[in-house]
Amino acid sequence: MRLVLAITGASGAIFGVRLLEALKALDVETHLVVSKWGQQTLEHETGRTLGEIRGLAAATYAAGEMGAAISSGSFKTDGMVVVPASMRTVAAIAHGFGDNLVHRAAEVVLKERRRLVIVPRETPLTEIHLENLLKLARLGVTVLPPDPAFYHRPQTVGEIVDHVVARILDQFGLEAPFAKRWDGDMRRDDVVALRPKS
After folding, report:
1. Distance (Å, rounded) from C-alpha 36 to C-alpha 22?
2. Which tens digits make up the pLDDT trace of 47-58?
3. Is 77 helix (H, G, I), strand (E, B) or coil?
4. Closest by alpha carbon to 151, among 121, 193, 120?
5. What is the CATH number of the domain that holds 167?
6. Which residues lie below 8 Å from residue 179, measured CB to CB, with a gap of 6+?
7. Least C-beta-crowded within 10 Å: which of 12, 42, 99, 167?
8. Angle formed by the axes of helices 101-111 and 87-94, to 10°?
């Protein structure tokens, strides 16, 4: 499998990094593009350099590299994930503004009818944000907010991140061996464990 992965300037770069790690472990060929603000946010939030992150991908591109392989529909991929997706990126994709490689690669995925997963990171959402996300959803884009689940009783931030990454992998039929999935077991001791301390 070959996937394009874009990291943009919204908070939540950890989701993109963890997805890269998971895809590498699954031997998925990843093509990474990080926007200018994506790089700054990534380095600020994770303490890792872009150089370190690039080592997780099969190929990497600069955001201004408009002649990159992923800018053409003739370069076959199985789809693309934008994680995290800033609202500027969401707007650009929704309205066809291909002014950098993230936007252009997403446009290619749309025009070739391949799977596009957007992981938007903003709160609260304005009517403009919602309209742009709705427009993308109507075009067949999967809008996957990184909302945490608590039924698996996460003990760390890493477990919360892993849950979101597993849901992204699900969109491409990829295994997530680290996923803790809902099994319908609602024993009383599980419910008690979720009660906040007073």
Report:
1. 24
2. 999 999 999 999
3. coil
4. 193
5. 3.40.50.1950
6. 162, 163, 166, 169
7. 99
8. 40
Question: What is the rounded CA–CA span in Å between residue 35 and residue 38?
Answer: 5
In the chain, the number of structural domains is 1
What is the pTM assigned to this prediction? 0.92
Q: For the purposes of burial, counting CB atoms within 10 Å of the CB of 111, is it exposed (0-12), middle (13-18) or buried (19 or more)?
A: exposed
Q: What is the spatial distance between Cα 125 and Cα 134, in angstroms, rounded to a whole number?
A: 12
Evaluate whether 82 touches 70 at the Cβ level (below 8 Å).
no
**Tens-digit pLDDT profile for residues 129-165:** 999 999 999 999 999 999 989 988 999 999 999 999 9
Q: What percent of the chain has pLDDT over 70?
A: 94
Residue 157 CA to its chain's centroid (Å):
17
> What is the torsion angle, in degrees rounded to the nearest 10, for the CA atoms of residue 104, residue 74, residue 133 and residue 3?
-100
CB 96 within 8 A of CB 135: no
What is the separation of C-alpha 97 from the centre of its chain, rounded to a whole number of angstroms? 20
* 198 occurs within a structural domain: no
Q: Does the CA dihedral 106-107-112-117 come out positive or negative?
A: positive
Q: Which residue segment(s) compose the domain that 35 sits in? A: 2-193
